[in-house]
Fold this protein.
Amino acid sequence: MLTGGGDCPGLNAVIRAVVRKGVNRHGHQIVGYRDGWKGVLEDESMALDIENTSGLLPRGGTILGSSRTNPFKEENGVERVKENLAASNIDALIAIGGEDTLGVAEKLHSEGVKVVGVPKTIDNDLNATDFTFGFNTAVQICTDAIDRLHTTAESHNRVLVVEVMGRHAGWIATYSGIAGGADAILVPERPFDLDEVCDHIRRRHGRGRAFSIVVVAEGATPKEGDEITAAEQTDAFGHVRLGGIGVALEGEIEERTGFETRVTILGHIQRGGTPTAFDRVLATRFGIAAIDAVDDGDFGKMVALRGTDIVRATLSEAVGTLKTLDAELYETAEVFFG
Ligand code: F6P
């Protein structure tokens, strides 16, 4: 098993569930590769047993470590993966990750590697599953932050801009914005018109509400302009580091409206700490379903949540296209703007 990409609350709960059912019910032996695909490439692993995976359920992060290493970008990467798996007598691999990690899993599956995927990302932008684990926790963290920002915004008659994660999808921004009662929510799927945002704020303040909360996803862009990046270089999957839209909005909103504006960037706090009860249960169900799929020899699949059921989707359904924000959900949020 391996955990790849950005860490996410609930990873340890998946690991615990895979080991508990794999060892106790199916009689498997399980190893964990360190730091995602990097561990498979460099053959660095640790034995996982009931003992060293107990107590993991509420623990954030991943005991295996994670990385954004892409074997398809490494010299002889695919051959090295295959050789190392064969040399360690690995029958099957459970890859726990998002679009990138599972994209690698899907390609390796088409090269003959026996792999099952588990959908993980706080962004909730993975196709073929209604929810990924980690998302619920991130939304709760953002909602708590927005609640706290409300009281200070109100006390100082300020506009508070809250920048949340969400590279290509505005799920976190929209869920936490609705839950926290945001006055505007800006998401990557809908390039925004800053004049319109300022109009919302002015209209609201004109009605005697002297404060506003604007939630912005890090990947949101103005109608005219590009996404704002924090660094030039890209990772092994071609992603730039985003960040900066909140700061840009702070200056622009204050200048255009004349209302004092402050920005809060929630950053990696959204990925840290203990998972919510929802994510603990989802991660546990995913872990159990993944080891069952391995035991059934049903490879090239990703376990997924559909409604209240855990099902098996193909890895190819899951990767390639991102699950962007539901238009109806955003329209619900819009009712409360301005
Ligand atoms: O993919 C999850 C995510 O948290 C994104 O929302 C964010 O853009 C990215 O990871 C940040 O990655 P890193 O921690 O590598 O800077």
The longest strand covers residues 159-164.
